[in-house]
Amino acid sequence: MGSSAVVSRALRLIDEGALDDTNLENFSARLGVGSRHLRRLFAEHLGASPVAIASARRTHFAARLIEETALPFTEIAFAAGFNSIRQFNEAMRATFQQAPTEIRGRTGLKTALKQPHPAAGALTLRLPYRPPLDWARMSGFLQARAIPGVEHVTDTTYRRTIAINGQAGVIELQFVADAAHLLLRAWLPEHTPIMQVVERARRIFDLSAEPQLIHEHLRRDAVLTAAVNAAPGLRVPGAWDAFELSVRAVLGQQVSVVAARTLASRLAAAFGETFDSPFAELTTVFPAPENIAARDASELTALGILPKRAQTILALARALAANELTLTPAADPIATIEQLQTIAGIGAWTAHYIAMRALSWPDAFPHTDLGVMKALNEKNPKRVLQAGEAWRPWRAYAVMHLWMKESA
Q: Known catalytic residue: 369?
């Protein structure tokens, strides 16, 4: 793995909070490098140490919670990953030269975040992004695949059930016209995991992308110019839950989007956790890998899932439940794609689709996809793969443009 790839993966792990509860030696070992080498790479590429970046992440997130929520400072401290109130206060003074009380007194709550919502009790935060963002196309993509009971999509909102820290909740992402942020509302039993919720929610609409950089690169290829110019804010829709997305990918093999959605909804209804959410249309949390891993194939086939796909889903669930497989953006995408393809029933298309949406790998390329081949007017997968070389390292974005071109 190259040095920039190591740094990129380390940053993704830091975003997931991997350095909040361990030391640099253990963190470096997870990346397969020594701590001294990792510090050297960070100094070379970023001009700061991994520990300093992790600390800045906690401090700036805490400042957001102070400015945008009415949470007590004690809750903010632990939600931002600090080990004590003293550590929190010292970090805020060192970074902003102000105490938390002064920061809140100076800024107050943002006006947009004070607006009432039909379902009370939500914690509301802004999720900034770099414009443009093609909300309509991305929400349409997600709406076509939304699992009834688990997800609900409207013209302006994406809502879904979540499970985090063993507890069920609901999140809502709302599009705000003429603004460079989405509004995140989270209905949670407690707010300790809110930093994780924010990071995972951002992935759903790929809010960390740099669209101008990506699309400037892609539009150079005459094959993509018109499609990119027509949708400059198109991104790669991610996923809240990697297992859920992977199951959908398996169920979607050689069937329509509607058929895959129907099967996924049956699976969720049969084995998911039901709970009282703030919304009547959201009733179920998609089952965890541990839940499905304990099932027999006959329980899945009774839902209409083909026997081979049932076995694939069980193998996938068991690998995740046993921690033999990791599906997060911090995972090595190439190694993970190879590992996924050792599971019977998962080929290159499925593995790359999972990497594209669950791992948020921008260079994932399901080149055998029928929609991609049709959009390129090409029947030879090798020539499709060859054409994709010009799109590196943004092939996943090229795929989205080709899919939208084909569905237009």
A: yes
Give the DSSP per-residue string, 67-108: HH----HHHHHHHTT-SSHHHHHHHHHHHHSS-HHHHHHHH-
Task: Give alpha helix (H) positions in 231-288.
Answer: 242-251, 257-271
- In whole angstroms, what is the distance from residue 62 CA to residue 333 CA? 31
pLDDT in tens, 314-333: 999 999 999 999 999 888 99
Q: Confidence band (pLDDT; 50, 70, 90) for 254?
A: confident
Q: What pLDDT digit, counting tens, does each position of 72-95 carry?
A: 999 999 999 898 999 999 999 999
Domain assignment of residue 72, given as a range = 3-109
97 is a domain residue = yes
Inside any domain, residue 369: no
Of the candidate ranges 10-19, 329-338, 393-402, the one whose mean pLDDT is the lowest: 10-19
Asked if residue 344 is part of any domain, the answer here is no
Q: Nearest-CA neighbor of 314 among 375, 262, 372, 267?
A: 267
> Do residues 16 and 199 make contact, with C-beta atoms less than 8 angstroms apart?
yes
Residue 226 in any domain: the answer is no
Show Cβ contacts of residue 302 under 8 Å, excluding neighbours closer than 6 positions: none
How many domains in the chain?
A: 1
Number of H helices and E strands in the chain, helices first, is: 21, 7
Query: Would you say 205 and 173 are in contact if contact means Cβ atoms under 8 Å apart?
Result: yes
> Which residue is catalytic, options 206, 241, 332, 369?
369
CATH number of the domain enclosing 23: 1.10.10.60
> CA-CA distances (angstroms) from residue 259 to 139, 307, 378?
19, 16, 26
Which residues are CB-neighbours of 278 under 8 A, at least 6 positions away?
A: 119, 120, 121, 122, 170, 187
**Section 91-120 average pLDDT:** 76
Asked if residues 31 and 13 have their Cβ atoms less than 8 Å apart, the reply is: yes
